[in-house]
Amino acid sequence: MAVSGLIFIGFVLTHMYGNLKAFGGHDSFNEYAHHIREFGEPILPHEGALWIIRVALIVSLVVHVACAVALWRRAAKARSVKYVVKKSKASSLSSRTMRWGGITLLVFIVWHLLNFTIGKVNVQGGATDDPYNLMVDSFDVWWLTLLYLVAMVALGMHLHHGVFSAAQTLGLTNNDKARRNAKAAGALLAVVIAGGFSLVPIFVLAGVITK
Amino acid sequence: MKFTLNIWRQPDAVTAGKIHTYELDEVSEDMSFLEMLDVLNEDLNAKGEEPVAFDSDCREGICGSCGLMINGEAHGPEVTTTCQLHMRSFKDGDSITIEPWRADAFPVIKDLVVDRGAFDRIIQQGGYISVNTGAAPDAHATPVPKDKADRAFDVATCISCGACVAACPNGSASLFVGAKITHLGELPQGQAERDTRVVNMVAQHDHEGFGGCTNIGECTAACPKEIPLDVISRLNWDLHAALRHGK
Ligand code: HEM
Ligand code: SF4
Ligand code: FES
Known about the structure:
The structure holds 2 protein chains of 2 kinds.
Chain A: H1 2-20, H2 26-38, H3 48-78, H4 93-96, H5 98-116, H6 131-139, H7 142-169, H8 176-205
Chain B: E1 3-9, E2 18-24, H1 33-46, E3 69-70, E4 73-74, E5 95-99, E6 108-110, E7 113-114, H2 117-124, H3 146-155, H4 163-167, H5 174-185, H6 194-207, H7 218-222, H8 230-244
Parallel strand pairs in B: 1-5
Antiparallel strand pairs in B: 1-2, 3-4, 3-5, 6-7
Helix pairs in contact in B: 2-6, 3-5, 5-6, 5-8, 6-8
Protoporphyrin IX containing FE (HEM) binds at residues 1-2, 5, 8-9, 12, 61, 64-65, 68, 71, 95, 98-99, 102-103, 105-106, 109, 158-159, 161-163, 165-166, 169 of chain A.
């Protein structure tokens, strides 16, 4: 679970960096989208590197979700009679919403792939063959931007606890200081990644990034 | 002081239980929580009703048998055991809900008493050091670095009360197992069995039906001995090491 989670973190960091190319304008963004397809050529075939990444991500997703389901089922079996009164004293909201937050992310990922990768849905009904224009058309629609921002809150919360939890699972937080650092790293990555992803949709909606 | 007590009553392991409400008056704020329950039981006895069954032994915070879920908090609102909790921690007129530890690995025997035998079986899988006993060795025969001795001592304060399991949303006993792994793993005497200890204790933990840890941290907050969350990191580290060594 920790390893698949860390693979996702590596991916979302790179993905976020790619998205920020939208601030460089139409050509800069599309060139990036084009370039990841040529990456590694001629040693790798066209889209070779992209497919390696895709397979790694799909495998990680299967592992990650399988672990999550196993943990959830074990927890349900470990306490079949619930408390009449139960308080949460010390845990963060993020840590308590990993499962429902994870489901939110899964639903979002499906929509996101339909939107931009597999389906290429232009909710404004325009052309879909130009990545930059499809993106601007999408985030010009307020409710779609809102949907993305909600997903980024879910991602931020998942990372806030996930980074620390992964450090614990890997046995890297063996004293006070390491534990505090891992928690701080979780908060930092959550803000950087969720914030970084949110910039482009917000600036499109605000009319700063245009076709 | 006056209290309304909502207490889980269950006649035996197989019969379904439910919450009963009792009114208790003239409680002194200097009474411990268990003394308050003793007063209630005297009342019930006098009325010819069945007293409330609960566990206790030392009543000085060291045996770990007095675990109760009090208003949704393991051992109540203070960082201590139920026997060391006093009624001054509550307000006059409070309504207090008292439940047994809830974990399928800790089945209810009666009312508030649960069977924590699962912890004993985990300990039997490696929570010890195998040595031939004989004359006591010289105190300085095996040097132990001060920082390791301190850490081992700190986590050895775990009294196996089960509050960590009771508080954990996953019903995991990782804090308890982590405390034992860290305690023996810090000491030179614990090295020979370090790999098999962690593998066997974790296997028994899972076999007993405790949940998997997701590092939420409710356990540490509930622990009367303030065992820190990093013992779980240590548990994972030792487990990975043992698996690498092919154990
Ligand atoms: C596809 C939907 C997803 C689901 C259903 C899901 C679910 C979960 C669950 C239930 C946990 C375990 C709870 C815990 O450790 O506290 C978890 C942990 C984690 N998740 Fe996700 N998650 C998803 C996507 C993601 C994504 C996109 C990322 C990264 C960007 C991510 C990163 C992590 C990390 C780092 C952990 C901690 C691993 C550990 O404790 O060992 N997850 N996830
Ligand atoms: S770790 Fe703390 S809460 Fe858990 S059994 Fe030991 S003393 Fe009790
Ligand atoms: S009765 Fe021994 S710790 Fe409370």
